[in-house]
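Before the break, one more example. Copy the sequence into your notebook; we will annotate it together after we see the structure.
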Amino acid sequence: MRIEDYGLIGDMQSAALVGRDGSVDWLCLPRFDSASCCSALLGDARHGRWLLAPAGESRATTRRYLPGTLVLEREHETADGAVRVTDFMPPRRHGPPRLMRIVEGLRGAVPMRMELALRPDYGAVHPWIERAADGVVATAGPDAFRLSTPLPLEVEDGTASAEFVVVAGARERLTLTWHLSYEPAPPVEDADSALARTSEWWRQWSGRCRYDGAYRDEVLTSLIALKAMTSETTGALIAAPTTSLPEEIGGVRNWDYRYCWLRDSVLALEALLAAGYSEEALAFRDFLLRVGTGDPRQIQIMYGIGGERRLTEFELPHLPGYEGSQPVRVGNAASEQFQLDVYGEVAAVMYLGADLLGRVEKRLWPRWRAIVEHIETIWREPDDGIWESRGERRHYTYSKVMAWVVFDRVVRIAERFELEGPIDRWRQTRDEIHREICERGYDRERRTFTQYYGSRELDASVLNIPLVGFLPGTDERVTGTIDAISAELGRDGFVSRYSTAETDDGLPGDEGQFLACSFWLVSALALNDRVAEARALFERLLGLANDVGLLAEEYDVARQRQVGNFPQAFSHLTLIVAARAITAAERGQKHMAVRTSSA
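Here is what the structure looks like once it is written out:
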């Protein structure tokens, strides 16, 4: 299946991808970054899946989320009638992780097929399956999985299956629960009551959304996706719930995104905060305080969901990869890179939290000062850049812009709250960085900011220059940059991060068009008084989402399909920012910077 044929369900601690065909092809328990027990997404049925679908051919299949929720409904029309399958994962709170499926007959009598082939440790292990009073239990080392259902089950070769008929008005329920194999199995919750509880929880959360601008339905869908990728227990927000979905079909640009990038998290939480969700912002601030340690030199660009620092990257040769895209990777070596722009995102968290609370907590100010003082010593150094290039370090323009953000925000905070610090020195550093970027990161002949100092290559990340308030949106240098990036990095109107042919990023092959970059272009156009162009591009981008509103990391123009890890937080958070930019422009608020951190 195509990447866009999947829907997301989750409980804010783990997640699953459910195909249009009714197969759960990706499931990690008990955490987002746990070894998958269903890995057909990166291989085939032999690597684990949970299929629940009509036994015969479906004439038509439609899907939707229950309004304001992450409860996924799928209806199948067959020659024998129609059925509805509801898939969801109840918010966990203090209970175990559960994936529940309810089959309801709508019309006629439809033969159904259920097949549960759990393959823990990324499809490498066949569990031992034993019958239980209400189903079966599969065990593999520390992992135990209990399938509870009144359906009669057949067990063969590590797979539990059932064939049954659903008539109009009838309901069948199936619950898969994970627990530690050396602990007693937890009690099973009734699926119908769990559905009611889950739906109500999501409706209450969605009901708190304060966004009232353009494209509200699409914004709410994206907010729900971001919430689903936010850890309820630690406050961390993952970049995506998958690993190794390729940026190029058949290529090697396959990465594990089940971790917390500080950059992505800050941007996502700014989007959530702008819609009224302050709890998530404060939870992530606390996560950042825990992982930051007492030495700002040790801040990483990314962490594990619990704040883990070691994200060792390795390959899984037994998995053939999505449509043969190898290698399949677990872990991410980019965690060891130096990316200067991350400190700008840390400063954004500081500013965001202070603005939210209306104060700076005294216990935190020394820590923020230590970070700023460290950046004073490193901002002149080359780095690896926002895109985690595996080539040589350079003086990336966007990295320097975000260093400017550090000093701009700390000056604002210190002045607003009358905090102690070398404000004059910080102000001078801010102005020095600004002058340097305008002199060394700007190509006057071509009227555009470039990828790094002295280069001719372009990079879509500099579209953020007006978004963070570095320059006004209508500045002629912003206009020139928008036009140059649209012309040179655009493919059928969608924007690539950079030219892989001209930029040595240490990797072979190409990639799709990065959706976040195209949404950045929408925001920049809106700030540049080109609202009609912004709307036109935005609506084209909305047309790339799948039938339930989800977006991957990239779009392959040539193949006309989504590529990269899915769903991607970066794509959805920049969608929200772009919708806000269009709304602000149409309401005559063009003077406002788009990102909350610069408001």
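The first helix runs from residue 120 to 123. The chain has a mean pLDDT of 92. Try to locate both features in your own notes.
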